[in-house]
Design brief:
This protein is α+β, with helices and mostly antiparallel strands. 25% of the residues lie in helices and 24% in strands. It is globular and about 65 Å long.
């Protein structure tokens, strides 16, 4: 038997792999920070053997309540990911599985690699609707891509959508894949009409360094990018600085930030009700958007989510709050579960890449329902 995570996005430290029924592992912390929860590793030499994998420091993770009701994902081909028997016992995450093949990958959620992102960008740039822009470079000098969809003409509404500020929230990349694919479908009448009204700027991965390093929430300098929007730093958080400068040039009418939530077993939207400038117009648009999205896609719901921040008490270092206050924009944080959805569970996959893509695609229609009022 052998356990390894020496690949892009990998995160685990083997402690003892001498017995298949007592494999002891430990999640590494994000560099320069205390966050830990994301794991992704490969186990080999275990075909048809009953395995018990114990992540012994699960109780020390950033969101230990997230392990309740959670099941890890596994894959033989790294294309199709399925859930495996998982329990949280005495501070340990215990994964029980009898692999059908010699090599199996396990992860917190289905990974979305930088190579897969590069392939997506390469394909979408061939669309006549698309321009790929270079916003700048990351702490480790990786490119920060921005995909512009639609014509950069005056008097158009401007929508910005970003994902993976927290690199371990990989469902956000799957959401983006569905969102972008529908926007570029020339046979989709909703996308066609939306692009007659809106120019979209999309950052499919705000944190490629953290994605490569196998981090949960931070970049290579240990910065939580979704706490840097008020005062980004060229050394610690250049990713935010570069994107914010582009937003200052374009303006923002609608801002969408896509995330994953460790604890809640549902899809929901949080917004910027707590910023000083929040008004009735944006509240009505937000309510309409959420209502329409729940009708278009029943995987989205409005009953559960984060409590609203009291008026005037919003933290302006968050993307959603900073952009709402700075530009007077309607802004939203889209959250998806690491677990399954309680309202429509799927025994085989739980919440999955496939369902994330569908949710991203249906947001195109939700934007279309409110675009004329932005």
């Amino acid at each position: 038997m052998h356990v390894s995570s020496n690949f892009e996005g990998g995160n685990i430290r083997p402690i003892d792999c001498s017995e298949a029924d007592n494999i002891r592992l430990e999640i590494r912390r994000d560099r320069e920070s205390g966050f830990l929860q994301w794991f992704y590793f490969r186990l080999t030499g275990v075909a048809h053997r009953q395995c018990l994998l114990r992540i012994v420091n699960a109780g020390e993770c950033s969101y230990p309540d997230g392990w309740k009701g959670y099941r890890a994902v596994a894959s033989y081909d790294r294309e199709f990911w399925f859930r495996v028997d998982t329990s949280y016992e005495d501070g340990e995450l215990c994964i029980r599985h009898q692999p059908g093949y010699d090599s199996v990958h396990y992860a917190y959620f289905a990974p979305y690699s930088l190579e897969k992102l590069a392939a997506l960008v390469a394909v979408v740039q061939t669309s006549p609707r698309t321009t790929v822009l270079h916003a700048g470079t990351t702490v480790q000098e990786r490119d920060l891509d921005v995909i512009r969809i639609g014509n950069a003409e005056a008097n158009r509404k401007i929508c910005w959508a970003i994902a993976r500020q927290h690199p371990g929230e990989t469902m956000a990349s799957w959401w983006m894949e569905g969102f972008i694919s529908r926007l570029l479908d020339s046979n989709d009448p909703v996308s066609r009409e939306l692009l007659n009204r809106v120019t979209l700027y999309i950052v499919p991965n705000m944190n490629p360094d953290g994605s490569s390093l196998g981090h949960l929430r931070t970049n290579a300098a240990g910065a939580n990018l979704n706490r840097c929007w008020h005062e980004p730093d060229n050394r610690k958080s250049p990713e935010v600085l570069h994107v914010r400068r582009m937003m200052e040039d374009t303006g923002v009418d609608l801002g969408i930030d896509v995330h994953g939530d460790e604890i809640l077993a549902c899809n929901f939207i949080a917004s910027a009700e707590g910023v000083p400038s929040w008004d009735g117009r944006r509240q009505r648009l937000l309510d309409t958007y959420k209502r329409e999205l729940s009708l278009i896609n029943p995987d989205f719901q409005t009953e559960y989510g984060y409590p609203s921040t009291p008026p005037g008490k919003a933290n302006l270092s968050y993307f959603t709050n900073y952009i709402a206050e700075t530009f007077g924009a309607l802004t939203m944080t889209h959250e998806m579960p690491f677990k399954d959805t309680a309202g429509a569970p799927n025994a085989l996959q739980g919440w999955s890449p496939e369902r994330s893509r569908h949710l991203g695609a249906t947001n195109v229609e939700a934007i279309y329902r409110i675009v004329d009022e932005l």
